[in-house]
Every structure is written in C-alpha cells, then in structure tokens.
Amino acid sequence: MSFPISYEIIYSKRKSVAIQIRPDGQVIVRAPYGCPRSFINSFIHQKADWIVKHSAENKQRCEKQVQLKKDRPTLSDAQRKRYIETARSIFTQKAAYYARLIGVTYGRISIREQKTRWGSCSSRGTLSFNYRLIYGPAGPLDYVVVHELCHLTHMNHSKDFWDMVERIMPDYRIYKQWLREHGQELTLTTHLKKQGIPIRLS
Question: Most buried among 15, 99, 145, 178, by the most CB within 10 A?
Fold first, then answer.
C-alpha cells in the first residue's frame, strides 16, 4: 500500500525534521542524516491535515499566477512609458504631500516595474516605487509612500519605525495586508477588466 502523501526527502546536517511545501504543492521533508523512514512517515501522518491544506493553497496560488501571466497583455514601449509617467506624476504628488506631514525631505523619485517589491528607500534619500501600484486602490499606494518616507528617519523596521507609520496612517495594517493578499492582481489586465475596457493593446 502506498503512503497517502507523496513527498521528497532531502537529508542534510540538521538536527530536526521540517516540512516545506513548494509553490506547486510538492511536499519536501528536510531531515538529518540517518533519520529513520518510519519516523518521517509518522511525522508526516501527524502533520497530514496541515500538509493537505497548505499544499492545496500553494498549488491554487501557483495556478492563479500562471493564469495571470497568460492573461497579461504585452505593452509596447510607448504604452509602458505612458503608464510609468502617469505613475511618476501620482507618486510625486503623494510623496510631496506625506513628506510635509512627516517632516522629511527626499531626493529623486524612481519608478520601476518589479514583480514583488513595492518600494524602497536608499541611504541617499532616493525613493523607488513600483508603477503597478497605480492599478489598485489609493490606500495601498499611499501606504507604500508613507512606508518609504518613514525609512528616511528609521532605516529599519523597528518599533519606532512602525509607530511613525501608524501616526501618519492609523489603518496601515489594512493596506499592508491587502497588498499581501491582492498584490499579484495588480496587473494591467485586471485594471482594464475592472473598468470594462476591452484588452486590445497590440
């Protein structure tokens, strides 16, 4: 009789057994050298409910990301430039407004196109923002601006940093969580669909 949960074992110089679930739902067991297979099977049995739940969630998330990539229209250089310039105008206004509230000054603003990172702040005061934020609600975009501006005072994620963010934006946790749950949906395709605009860019 085959084991109910399929998994791969990776042995290494570690002291305990751990379970890793890859984005495609594959289960990886990391175990110390010499760990008995019977012990690993017993460990898997104990964690079966957790494994099934998270494997399904990861697989579903992976399939959704693949579909989003398939649906994503290709922008021409002119179209990409237009969206980036729109984003630059929005972020310039937002940064100026919140910088006055916080009482900080910054250098230049850089607009980028990244998959996961929403913003950054350099030690020289350069603020970088992901233009895809303009496809979503105003709250998450404002949160990212406030987050990076607060880094001009606290170049870390200490309690003082988060206290400063909260003073300016008491509901920041809502927007932070929104980005975690919906950030992957910030694509041109989703943006156009929500506005009922036919997706014809080529």
Answer: 145
Instruction: Please report, for residues 9, 27, 47, the alpha-carbon distance to residue 36 in angstroms, rounded to integers and kept in the order given.
Output: 11, 18, 17
Q: How many CB atoms lie within 10 A of CB 9?
A: 13
Comparing CA positions, the residue from 180, 42, 34 lying closest to residue 19 is: 42
Question: Per-residue pLDDT tens for 92-129?
Answer: 999 999 999 999 999 999 998 877 789 999 989 999 99
Question: pTM value?
Answer: 0.60
Four-residue CA torsion sign, 97, 99, 103, 105: negative
Cβ-proximal residues to 151 (8 Å cutoff; 6+ apart), any chain: 121, 161
Contacts of 99 (CB under 8 A, 6+ apart): 105, 106, 149
